[in-house]
Write a structure and sequence with these properties.
CATH architecture of the domain at 382-737: Distorted Sandwich
CATH class of the domain at 382-737: Mainly Beta
Largest sheet: 12 strands, antiparallel
Low-confidence stretches: 1-8, 12-34, 740-744
InterPro entries: Alg_lyase, Alginate_lyase_dom, Chondroitin_lyas, Hepar_II_III_C
Shape: elongated
Radius of gyration: 28 Å
Mean pLDDT: 93
Domain Heparinase II/III-like C-terminal: 385-643
Number of helices: 17
Strand content: 25-35%
EC number: 4.2.2.26
CATH topology of the domain at 382-737: Beta-galactosidase, Chain A, domain 5
Keywords: Lyase, Periplasm, Signal
Organism: Stenotrophomonas nematodicola
Helix content: 25-40%
Length: 744
């Protein structure tokens, strides 16, 4: 796991469920007593005093304080530097303003925790520098988007600056002279809050950019004792409830706590949601913000942890692959959620993070960890509904084998706004601690100036968002919804089935409207059997179209090909490109087969384990092996392998397959075990209103799964073929033969 989010979130001001009095004495070294108009309100003086007295007793908290001290001492040694903004993301002025807000945040916390006036004076001097700079700033010279920032090239970063800096300011505000306090209030915090709340096209959106903006303005309102700012933050710039924080809580999360833009952006948005909710709870507990919508903000913390494997978030939509459970946003979320719930499962995540907030919540977590109260966080099969009412698709997560066992993720969610990808009914598979069936995520190198300043690269649109870059159906080489996210936003898949047993877990969904006149239904099964060394994935995708079309079904995988189990012509002299647009221009073709309806196989090796994928279709299909990276003169794309099944000239067809993990390769010991698949064949049979997939296993055993066309409806079904007949009631049924049991 990596850590790239600013330190400021670890120093976030937040509040425990049992709030302490708002007005208390300033720490030792303060030159004046705290007054009601300037006493800290984001963490009270009494709470700071408790942390100062007890923090050193708990190692995780003490280490966090030491980390902050190293940061601020280094900044003090470097001197005050408040440069005129000129650089885009990753440039010097951009990074310096980031370092400054981290230092303001940390210095405020350290002043309260140590009583050393050096920290307060340093934060004051930095803020006085901004009081001179900020009022004269216009739009950033490298401004991006409709509303450029002032300190940074996009308004989002200005909001993040204010969320952080206002917390540090709250901690030192009662130590300042009246003149300095007024200079900073009127030269920094009021004009920044006015700028953010005065741009309704950003402030009133239902989007993570707006969440950062309302959190910044609302927290500033509490610190400055300005109820107008707070009201705007909660209810929108018009103060009528049509926008603002409360509307965002109601619209951006499903009842299960799933965030509309997916786990990567749920991680990012979690910080302002949780931090501002704590500010509301501390100052206006009567609002019951943590119980709103049945505690959806606390559910969001739990669902985000569930949306991970091996410490990393599922990289769906515009996601960067290296974001995981140790990101500072989730450190804040875990600590605050634990303070609200005392859920000991969260402590195991905090233990792995090895960090806490310098806040009352962080102290609670550090104390609980020292008392060995942590319980394992159970990663379990989970259906996370999407949409504010839970009626717009869902993320289906199937799991076996514990935290680093098998996880099958079926992305049956809605579009995810402008950060969404065109990949309905896409899937990912994890096993043995590795990404096996992969998702590209975003084409972006965050804040690396050499790569377009760290923003999304052109290939994010030309490749990463296109349907071909994902593991789902492509029709006539066009992406879902014609590549129009606003059209996609209005149409979500329909979940049909979700069931999770000990040895069989299944999910199914249908997508209508991704293409005119085309409907496709996908059912996936995670299945364990004594004859198999590991659980396997069964995949059934039925497509029905109103006219003949080209159907492509890509599979993006991670590993080195060991065996191509079909005849294919390799492109060795020249590397042709798959197509001209919609992502096809970015794929080299390395090998291609002739059409056939017979099942084929492909085996690859990843981290000492073999994976065999057996696949077929009811209509003749070609198999193509390719790699991403064509037409990429700036080397912006990762080179990753893919398999493509192609059916031409059909109105309807069914793709089916099984992915089997098996065996072990030990390079150190030079041993190989189980390199051959334990599955002899996969067969498909069709009935009047149902399908059956049959796996012929080594040793003569057989397992079959019957799947109804409408698995969410009651009814009886019968399918016959290959000398067998399968009958069942309901949406699905598993049948085992040759192992002492028949029908489950």
């Amino acid at each position: 796991m990596t850590r790239s989010t600013p330190l400021m979130l670890l120093l976030a001001a937040s509040f425990s469920a049992a709030a302490l009095p708002a007005v208390a004495a300033a720490p030792a070294g303060s030159q004046q007593p705290a007054a009601a108009a300037s006493a800290p309100v984001l963490v009270t003086a009494a709470q700071w005093q408790q942390m100062r007295s007890d923090g050193s007793r708990y190692p995780v908290f003490a280490k966090e304080q030491q980390r902050a001290e190293r940061l601020v001492r280094g900044m003090i040694k470097a001197g005050i530097d408040v440069p005129v903004p000129k650089d885009k993301g990753g440039g010097y002025t951009h990074e310096q303003h980031k370092r400054n807000y981290q230092a303001i945040q940390a210095a405020g916390a350290l002043y309260r925790l140590t009583g050393d006036k050096v920290y307060a004076d340093y934060a004051r001097d930095l803020l006085l520098g901004y009081a001179k700079l900020y009022p004269g700033l216009g739009a950033h010279p490298q401004g991006r988007g409709q509303i450029p920032g002032r300190l940074f090239w996009q308004t989002l970063n200005d909001s993040v600056w204010l969320v952080s800096a206002v917390q540090g300011y709250d901690a030192i505000r009662d130590s300042l002279s009246a003149a300095d306090r007024k200079t900073i209030d009127d030269g920094v915090f009021r004009p920044m809050a006015d700028f953010l709340s005065g741009t309704p096209e950003n402030f009133d959106k239902i989007h993570n950019h707006a969440t950062w903006a309302v959190a910044a303005v609302g927290m500033t309102g509490y610190v400055l004792r300005d109820p107008t700012y707070v009201d705007k933050a909660l209810n929108g710039s018009r103060r009528d409830g049509s926008a603002g924080f409360l509307k965002q809580v109601d619209q951006l999360f499903s009842p299960d706590g799933y965030y509309e833009e997916g786990p990567y952006y749920q991680r990012y948005a979690l910080a302002p949601f949780i931090l501002f909710a704590n500010a509301v709870q501390r100052n206006e507990p009567q609002r019951g913000i943590f119980t709103r919508r049945d505690g959806v903000l606390l559910k969001a913390v739990d669902s985000l942890v569930q949306s991970s494997y091996g410490g990393y978030f599922f990289p769906i939509n515009d996601a960067i692959l290296d974001k995981g459970l140790d990101t500072e946003e989730l450190v804040a979320g875990i600590d605050i959620a634990y303070a609200q719930t005392s859920d000991a499962r969260l402590l195991s995540v905090a233990k792995a993070q090895k960090r806490v907030l310098l806040s009352p919540e962080g102290l609670q977590v550090a104390q609980a960890l020292a008392q060995d109260k942590a319980k394992p966080f159970a990663f379990v099969p989970t259906l996370l509904r999407d949409g504010p009412d839970g009626t717009e698709g869902a993320l289906a997560i199937l799991r076996m084998g514990g935290e680093n066992g098998q996880a099958l993720v079926m992305k049956n969610t809605k579009q995810g706004m402008g950060h969404g990808h065109f990949d309905k009914l896409n899937w990912l598979f994890y096993d043995n601690g590795q990404r096996v069936v992969t998702d590209y995520g975003a084409a972006r190198f965050l804040n690396i100036e050499a790569k377009a300043g760290g923003i999304y690269l052109p290939e994010n649109n030309s490749w990463a968002r296109q349907t071909l870059a994902h593991n789902t159906l492509v029709v006539n080489e066009q992406s879902h919804f014609g590549g129009d996210w606003k059209k996609g936003q209005a149409l979500a898949p329909t979940p049909l089935l979700f069931a999770a047993g000990d040895d069989t877990q299944i999910a199914s969904a249908r997508m209508d409207g991704a293409y005119d006149g085309v409907s496709f239904t996908r059912t996936q099964v995670l299945l364990a059997h004594p004859a198999l060394t590991e659980p396997v994935v069964l995949d059934l995708l039925r497509v029905n179209g109103s006219k003949a079309a080209r159907y492509d079904l890509p599979l993006h995988f991670n590993g080195h090909i060991m065996d191509v189990g079909f005849k294919a012509q390799s492109a060795v002299a020249a590397r042709p490109v798959l197509g001209k647009a919609n992502g096809y221009q970015h794929v080299w073709i390395d090998a291609a087969s002739e059409p056939t309806s017979e099942a084929r196989s492909l085996t690859w090796l990843l981290d000492g384990r073999f994976y065999t994928y057996r696949f077929a279709s009811t209509a003749p299909s070609r198999a193509l092996l390719g790699e991403s990276g064509a037409n990429d003169p700036s080397f912006n794309l990762r080179r990753e392998p893919m398999l493509l099944q192609r059916v031409d000239g059909q109105g309807a067809t069914t793709f089916y397959g099984v992915l089997e993990p098996h065996g072990q390769y030990d390079g150190t010991a030079e041993t190989v075990r189980g390199a051959n698949s334990r599955i002899d064949a996969i067969r498909h049979y069709r009935g009047k209103d149902a399908d059956v997939l049959v796996l012929a296993l080594a040793g003569g055993r057989q397992v079959a799964v019957g799947i109804a066309d409408e698995p969410n409806r009651p009814g009886s079904h019968e399918v016959s073929g290959g000398g067998h007949s399968w009958r069942w009631d309901g949406g699905w049924k598993r049948f085992d033969t040759g192992s002492g049991k028949d029908g489950k």
